[in-house]
């Protein structure tokens, strides 16, 4: 482990790293659909929805003339396409809003809250997520995530892995990049953070995508910390 004595703040990827989005959404929608008498392949919908995530943000990146579009709106656009694709009938505008806000109601991984609480005793902790501010705030309330503040791509009007996100987070915290550690279950996120001077911590979430998981079973970069969960990160940082 490299010298981490200068680190003052930990910032976290959220979807997949802090919260179990796939299981949360599938379970939420199955119970909701059953109560409404709406039959759908909710697993296929959720997997398809996440599958459109990167492309939707890339479209924003490629068309700056259209302005920044926050993730709630991108999620809603993607959902409307999937509802049509899967021929899900009987959904009102209110229903589509409820489903879109399913991303606000995600459950944490079993180690997340306890691990974050330990890390908070020594460091400033905050998300650095592509989720918008309202989404991340509502999620924190729902899941009991003890953030010190909310940092979102929306604040910088750039999605990760654009440099404006990582460097913007350090600037907002009044810190140098090397005083900030990015925590993620995704090697690509950490590679970008490391490129821009941040410290890095990897925690594996091998069931994030269920049977569709293809990458990120293990650390593939020279990260400063590699741990099995947030408790392991806290151990290595003396919390």
From TrEMBL:
Q: What does this protein do?
A: Catalyzes the hydrolytic dehalogenation of small (S)-2-haloalkanoic acids to yield the corresponding (R)-2-hydroxyalkanoic acids.
Arranged from A to Z, the UniProt key words for this protein are: Hydrolase
InterPro entries to which the protein is assigned, alphabetical = 2-HAD (IPR006328), HAD-like_sf (IPR036412), HAD-SF_hydro_IA (IPR006439), HAD_sf (IPR023214), PGP-like_dom2 (IPR023198), S-2-haloacid_dehalogenase (IPR051540)
Enzyme kind, highest EC tier: hydrolase
Q: Which family does it belong to?
A: Belongs to the HAD-like hydrolase superfamily. S-2-haloalkanoic acid dehalogenase family.
The reply to whether Hydrolase figures as a keyword in the UniProt entry is yes
- Its Enzyme Commission number(s) read 3.8.1.2
Show the stretches that span the lipid bilayer.
Answer: none
What is the name of this protein?
Answer: (S)-2-haloacid dehalogenase
Q: Which reaction does it catalyse?
A: an (S)-2-haloacid + H2O = a (2R)-2-hydroxycarboxylate + a halide anion + H(+)
Q: Which GO terms describe its molecular function?
A: (S)-2-haloacid dehalogenase activity
Q: PANTHER family this protein is in?
A: HALOACID DEHALOGENASE, TYPE II (AFU_ORTHOLOGUE AFUA_2G07750)-RELATED, HYDROLASE, HALOACID DELAHOGENASE-RELATED
């Amino acid at each position: 482990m490299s010298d981490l004595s200068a680190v003052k703040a930990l910032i976290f990827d959220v979807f997949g790293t802090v919260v179990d989005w796939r299981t949360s959404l599938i379970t939420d929608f199955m119970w909701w659909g059953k109560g409404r008498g709406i039959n759908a392949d909710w697993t296929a919908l959720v997997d398809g929805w996440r599958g459109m995530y990167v492309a939707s943000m890339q479209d924003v990146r490629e068309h700056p003339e259209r302005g920044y579009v926050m993730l709630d709106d991108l999620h809603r656009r993607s959902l409307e396409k999937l509802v049509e694709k899967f021929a899900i009938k009987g959904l009102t505008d209110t229903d589509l809003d409820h489903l879109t806000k399913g991303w606000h109601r995600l459950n944490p991984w079993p180690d997340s809250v306890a691990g974050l609480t330990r890390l908070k005793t020594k460091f400033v902790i905050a998300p650095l997520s592509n989720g918008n501010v309202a989404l991340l705030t509502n999620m924190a309330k729902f899941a009991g995530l003890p953030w010190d503040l909310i940092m979102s791509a929306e604040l910088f009007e750039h999605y990760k892995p654009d440099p404006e996100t990582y460097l913007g987070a350090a600037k907002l915290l009044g810190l140098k990049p090397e005083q900030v550690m990015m925590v993620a279950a995704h090697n690509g996120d950490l590679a970008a953070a490391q490129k821009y001077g941040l410290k890095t911590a990897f925690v594996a979430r091998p069931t994030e995508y269920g049977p569709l998981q293809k990458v990120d079973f293990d650390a593939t970069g020279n990260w400063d910390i590699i741990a099995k969960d947030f408790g392991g990160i806290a151990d290595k940082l003396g919390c």
